[in-house]
């Protein structure tokens, strides 16, 4: 199997940060492209929309910091893109995006921001393992 495109699920959680590091490390070794995908929930009202924009700005800042911390370690062969889409179903959005854009590997954290509800594997991660059409690598923070 050749890996040329790596999709990393991002929500700002510790496990997502570790998935990002792992995805970049693998991509560097394989000369692959990395796309970081953040799925934000579609707003139902102006207040929710404004809060969503603030949350998106926080996540973009966190990702920029993560890239800054690991910039030299990303390797010269890694091309990084940050994509944000709005959807009601995070798991489906990740799965569909990976399939529609021809990704060879999905790297995702074991837990998202709702880790307290799922002590072993988060619901989005579980659905990726069950439903994804491309291989899924699950990463946990140390």
Quick structural gist:
This protein is α/β, with parallel strands linked by helices and 142 residues long.
Helix/strand class = alpha/beta
- Largest sheet geometry: 5 strands, parallel
Major beta sheet, strand line-up: 3-2-1-4-5
Query: Taking all residues together, what is the mean pLDDT?
Result: 78
Low-confidence stretches: none
Number of DSSP strand runs: 5
Rg, Å, rounded? 14 Å
Structure annotation, total helices: 4
Taking the alpha carbons of the first and last residues, their distance comes to 28 Å
Oligomerization: single chain
Element pattern in H and E? EHEHEHEHE
Strand proportion, as a percent range, falls in 15-25%
The rough form would be described as: globular
Measured as a percent range, the helix fraction is 40-55%
Descriptive keywords:
globular, alpha/beta, 142 residues
List the helices and strands and how they pair.
Layout: E1 5-10, H1 14-30, E2 33-40, H2 46-70, E3 79-86, H3 90-100, E4 105-109, H4 123-131, E5 136-139
Parallel strand pairs: 1-2, 1-4, 2-3, 4-5
Folded structure, characterized:
It is globular, with a radius of gyration of 14 Å. Helix 3 runs parallel beside helix 4. The protein has 142 residues and is an alpha/beta fold. It has a five-stranded parallel beta sheet, sandwiched between helices. The longest helix has 25 residues. It has four helices and five strands; from the N terminus they run βαβαβαβαβ.
């Amino acid at each position: 199997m050749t890996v040329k495109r790596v999709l990393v699920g991002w929500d700002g959680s510790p496990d997502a940060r570790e998935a990002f590091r792992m995805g970049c490390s693998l991509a560097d070794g394989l000369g692959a492209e990395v796309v970081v995908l953040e799925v934000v929930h579609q707003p139902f009202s102006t207040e929710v929309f404004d809060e969503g924009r603030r949350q998106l700005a926080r996540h973009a800042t966190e990702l920029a910091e993560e890239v800054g911390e690991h910039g030299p370690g990303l390797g010269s062969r890694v091309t990084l893109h940050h994509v944000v889409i709005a959807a009601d179903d995070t798991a489906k959005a990740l799965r569909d995006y990976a399939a529609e854009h021809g990704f060879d590997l999905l790297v995702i954290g074991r837990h998202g921001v709702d880790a307290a509800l799922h002590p072993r594997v988060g619901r989005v991660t579980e659905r990726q393992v069950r439903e994804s059409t491309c291989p899924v690598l699950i990463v946990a923070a140390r």
